[in-house]
Design brief:
Protein name: Aminotransferase class I/classII large domain-containing protein
InterPro entries: Aminotransferase_I/II_large, PyrdxlP-dep_Trfase, PyrdxlP-dep_Trfase_major, PyrdxlP-dep_Trfase_small
Strand order of the largest sheet: 2-11-10-8-7-3-4
Strand content: 5-15%
Structural class: alpha/beta
Order of helices and strands: EHHHEHEHEEEHEHEEHEEHHHHEEHEEEH
Helix content: 25-40%
CATH superfamily of the largest domain: Type I PLP-dependent aspartate aminotransferase-like (Major domain)
Number of helices: 14
CATH class of the largest domain: Alpha Beta
Radius of gyration: 22 Å
Number of strands: 16
GO molecular function: 2-aminoadipate transaminase activity; pyridoxal phosphate binding
Number of domains: 2
Pfam family, one: Aminotran_1_2
Distance between the termini: 35 Å
């Protein structure tokens, strides 16, 4: 039996713009004025033409009140690499109190936090019916600040003072739109209140905005996709730019962590960060960047060929969004047919617009995801992600089994034809765990 992989959050290879990338590579290599600088160390902030074109592209999609300046953009080696750089530049492992993660959270982010000295200090921001528990979060922040006051933890201890860096007291990590794994989209009210909390308690909100461009109507596959796509909601970084008169200082309290991985291919290892001009420059001053030059310099020159002509947005609108919409609806149809009759539910039904890569499922009370996932793989040839992967590891205030009745399935990696069969096999695995064994005849 060939395994069907509903675990891996990877883009399907057939959906990547390989031909366009090949042409872009050829264009770079045959133009010495582009090729030669692209093969050298680049400026710390990244390949300048790409910064300009990303700023224009983001302005057209997110439609902020004012155009986005290239000075707000720093080219990165992708969202994960940049998360590590943000922690290196803007945190101190002693002075920075905690990393707060909206739960459930991206399961591989915690390792990056721990590598920066925050092992044992990751804390969950809870949600209730999809809304952030911000008042409870505020109370926790107050307790932490009172403890820091008693311990006289009022200055960075490990990091020297540097003109390009500010050390924040707290880090808040979230994927606000089509979240991995819950698929939830944070409301505008929660985004605004989260920014206000970040300003009050000197926190930097790191938003992984990697799924924002992949959206479609959730109710019906026949609903036409809007041709002129625009963002569902303003990003947290946009809100920080304008809310209540704008940032309280030149650093701001939010950064948008973007990536081309889900759109062009993760192997390109290229993304961008957007924040205030001061914060964007600070990212570019990470030690590894200062030593080795801007990450993804050559890949940036290739990707840059896809932006000025409008190819990338056209490809997203005409290829990626329709394809992922079909996959989403195909999987949802199979879930309704094979899983809902077994007691599986969708805890956060999508609003009129959904997107991203994943569907989050709640299992019957008698089924634990930690039992189901290995059984589904071994006995039925389907890989799924158990919910307990997505808890905030080490948070002593959270029940470690809180997410063990949930499951994440991905519709991006496998071909559309395999998605229904994968869900059918998952239903068989659930049935195995919920059907009582027949008593032996004596």
């Amino acid at each position: 039996m060939k395994v069907i992989d509903l675990f891996s959050g990877w883009p399907n290879a057939n959906l990547l713009p390989k031909s366009a990338l090949s042409d872009a590579f050829a264009a770079v290599m045959t133009a010495p004025s582009i090729r030669d600088p692209a093969l050298q160390y680049g400026p710390d902030e990244g390949y300048e033409p790409l910064r300009h074109h990303i700023a224009h592209w983001l302005t057209a999609y997110y439609r902020p009140p004012d155009p986005i300046s290239p000075a707000r953009i720093c080219i990165t080696g992708g969202a994960s690499q940049n998360l590590a750089c943000l922690l290196q530049v803007f945190t101190d492992p002693i002075y920075t109190r905690n990393v707060w993660m909206v739960a459930p959270t991206y399961h591989l982010a915690g390792r990056i936090m721990e590598d920066s000295g925050f092992a044992g200090r990751l804390r969950a921001i809870s949600q209730n019916q999809g809304a952030l528990e911000l008042e409870g979060f505020r109370q926790e922040l107050r307790k932490v600040e009172e403890r820091a006051r008693k311990e006289e933890n009022d200055q960075p201890k490990s990091k020297p003072s540097r003109p390009w860096a500010k050390i924040y007291k707290h880090i808040i990590y979230t994927t606000p739109t089509f979240s991995n794994p819950s698929t939830l989209t944070m409301s505008l009210e929660d985004r605004e209140n989260l920014v206000r909390l970040a300003r009050e308690f000197d926190a930097l909100i790191i938003s992984d905005d990697v799924y924002d461009f992949l959206q479609w109507p959730s109710d019906d596959l026949q609903t036409p996709l809007p041709m002129n796509s625009k963002a569902l909601l303003p990003r947290v970084v946009d809100i920080d730019r304008y809310l209540d008169g704008g940032p309280q200082d030149e650093w701001g309290n939010a950064v948008s962590n973007g990536s081309f991985s889900k759109l062009i291919g993760p192997g390109m290892r290229t993304g961008w960060a957007e924040g205030t001009e001061k914060l964007a420059y600070g990212i570019s001053q990470t030690g590894s960047t200062r030593s080795g030059g801007a990450p993804s310099q050559f890949a940036s020159a290739i990707i840059d060929q896809l932006l000025p002509s409008g190819f990338l947005q056209h490809y997203i609108d005409q290829v990626l969004r329709p394809a992922y919409s079909r996959r989403y609806h195909r999987m949802m149809l199979a879930i309704h047919e094979h899983l809902l009759p077994l007691g599986v539910t969708i805890p956060f039904p999508a609003s009129s617009v959904t997107g991203g890569y994943f569907i989050w499922l709640e299992l019957p009370r008698s089924v634990r995801a930690s039992d189901l996932a290995p059984a589904a793989g071994q006995n039925h040839g389907v890989r799924v992600a158990p919910g307990d992967l997505f808890g905030v590891q080490g948070d002593p205030t959270i029940n470690p089994n809180e997410w063990n009745r949930f499951l994440r399935v991905c519709f991006a990696w496998e071909s559309e034809e395999k998605l229904g069969e994968g869900i059918r096999r998952l239903g068989e695995a659930i049935r195995d765990l919920t059907t009582p064994s027949s008593p032996e005849l004596v």
